[in-house]
Write a structure and sequence with these properties.
The relative contact order is 0.17. Strands 4-13-16-15-14-17 form a 6-stranded antiparallel beta barrel. The chain has a 4-stranded mixed beta sheet with strand order 1-24-20-19, with no helix packed on it. A 4-stranded antiparallel beta sheet has the order 3-18-22-21, with no helix packed on it. The chain has 5 domains: 3-60, no CATH class; 68-85 and 372-443, conserved putative lor/sdh protein from methanococcus maripaludis s2 fold (Beta Barrel), CATH 2.40.420; 89-99 and 295-366, Efflux pump adaptor protein, beta barrel domain (Elongation Factor Tu (Ef-tu), domain 3); 102-132 and 262-289, Beta Barrel (OB fold (Dihydrolipoamide Acetyltransferase, E2P)); 136-258. With 444 residues, the protein is α+β, with helices and mostly antiparallel strands. It has helices spanning 3-6, 13-29, 41-63, 135-195, 201-258, 381-385; strands spanning 68-71, 78-80, 82-86, 89-98, 101-105, 110-115, 122-123, 128-133, 261-263, 268-273, 280-281, 286-291, 296-303, 315-320, 323-337, 340-346, 360-366, 371-377, 389-393, 399-404, 406-410, 414-419, 426-428, 440-443.
Length: 444
């Protein structure tokens, strides 16, 4: 004890009060035995927490398999494996287009002078659409006409000349015939007189030579007239053929001149007109197109992956206005542009009412024949598994186990199952992104 305590003086302040209280407890302790408590509130709390941790760890070990995962069954899509008719087809986007389209090209180039109708107008066959002008073509027509006139005049002059020559030669032949007859009579007379010794040898020989000369002259003139007639006939024929060619060329050029006025070759809708007044158009340039509105076709854009499996005659179908309508591929365009190629499809049993140009349709294109097969509905599982495996439910529906499978053909609704599944089994077809590599899914 401190001196102050010994002297009976009490400490002052908080420290003093604390010290005095502690001294009294010590004095009381010296007088009685203190019993310690085994279960204090603090120890109870510590022991309880430890017990909870042990129980939770044991529950985890007993109920959770490292290769299993608990999933919410309501967030899964379940589907049965079925066996029945299966048709492999693809669904592609198609556009309704006119069955017949006539393109309007410039047969001859020229300057657009006048446009008679507007784009989008319905026109009848023969209706003028626009008019071009071409000064060089018009000059060419004039030159060909002048050349034709020259050839016609040449033929006419040739015929006149040949007729004059023919008449002259016939006149010469008539003269020779006359002289020949005179010489023949003179030779006969001289021959009789010479035999009667009434004429000299000289006179007889002169009459004989004159007859022979006139005979040969007549024969030569006849042959010349015949040959000249043949030559004139050939010459006239050549001139006539030349004139015919010139006339044909002139007709073609005039036809091209007429083509400067573009007319509708058929009745229909002028769906395109690419021409403005004053614009110059080269030969062969596209001026527009006319669509026949009575009948349509569907042009489908198909992924290049199927180009080897698409051919003319294959069947297709589409849904429209509550009904299903058939299509048949009539033409395949093999050119691939941006990973796609195109195919034209026609309506074998008539076009549905209400179909309009430019409409977009979801077209189903068959890639094979209808046949029975095991099949499973399409789903998001394919994105993760690639069709190599799938989760299959146990008969009680409490868990699903991963199983290897093999898929074959497909369409927009089903995959063909080649191996790994049986008819009636339930599988999970929804996305597997959150399942990782788990072998077993526990449904809760």
């Amino acid at each position: 004890m401190s001196d102050k305590q010994k002297n009976g003086e009490e400490p002052k302040g908080l420290v003093g009060m604390f010290t005095a209280e502690r001294q009294r407890e010590q004095d009381n302790t010296m007088d009685r035995r203190i019993e310690r408590k085994r279960f204090t509130p603090r120890r109870i709390a510590i022991y309880g927490a430890a017990a909870l941790v042990i129980v939770f760890a044991a529950w985890q070990l007993l109920t959770i398999n490292p290769s299993s995962l608990n999933v919410d069954a309501e967030k899964l899509t379940l589907a049965p494996v079925t066996h029945g008719p299966f048709l492999e087809y693809i669904v592609e986007q198609g556009e309704v287009m006119p069955l017949t389209t006539i393109y309007l090209d410039a047969v001859e180039g020229g300057r657009v002078e006048e446009v008679f109708v507007e784009e989008g107008s319905k026109i009848e066959e023969g209706t003028p659409i626009l008019r071009l002008s071409n000064a060089n073509l018009q000059l060419n027509v004039m030159q060909r006409e002048a050349e034709l006139f020259r050839e016609v005049n040449r033929l006419r002059e040739t015929r006149v000349t040949m007729e004059q020559r023919r008449l002259a030669m016939r006149a010469e032949l008539v003269r020779l015939e006359f002289e020949f007859r005179k010489a023949e009579r003179e030779y006969t007379r001289q021959d009789e007189m010479f035999k009667a010794d009434l004429a000299s040898r000289k006179e007889f020989d002169e009459a004989k030579d004159n007859l022979e000369y006139l005979t040969r002259s007549r024969d030569v003139t006849v042959e010349t007239l015949r040959q000249d007639s043949l030559y004139q006939t050939i010459q006239v024929q050549q001139l006539e053929e030349s004139i015919d060619r010139l006339r044909l060329n002139l007709e073609l050029i005039k036809q091209n001149e007429d083509n400067l006025t573009l007319r509708a070759p058929i009745s229909g809708l002028l769906s395109s007109l690419i021409a403005e007044v004053g614009e110059s158009k080269p030969r062969g340039d596209r001026l527009g197109q006319i669509d026949v509105e009575d009948e349509f076709k569907v042009r489908a854009a198909i992924d290049e992956h199927y180009i080897a499996r698409i051919r003319t005659g294959q069947a297709g179908s589409f849904d429209f206005a509550g009904g299903t309508y058939d299509l048949v591929i009539s033409r395949v365009y093999p050119e691939v542009i941006e990973g796609q190629f195109e195919a034209d499809m026609v309506f074998p049993e008539g076009m549905p009412d209400g179909l309009r140009r430019g409409q977009t349709l979801q077209v189903r294109v068959a890639l094979g024949e209808l046949a029975d097969a095991m099949q499973v509905p399409r789903g998001g599982f394919y994105q993760t598994t690639g069709g190599r495996w799938i989760y299959v439910l146990d008969p009680a529906g409490e868990f699903a186990v991963r199983r290897q499978i093999r898929l074959g053909r497909q369409n927009s609704q089903y995959f063909e199952v080649l191996e790994g599944l049986e008819e009636g089994e339930q599988v999970i077809t929804s996305m597997y992104d959150n399942f990782g590599d788990m072998e077993r899914l526990v449904l809760q």
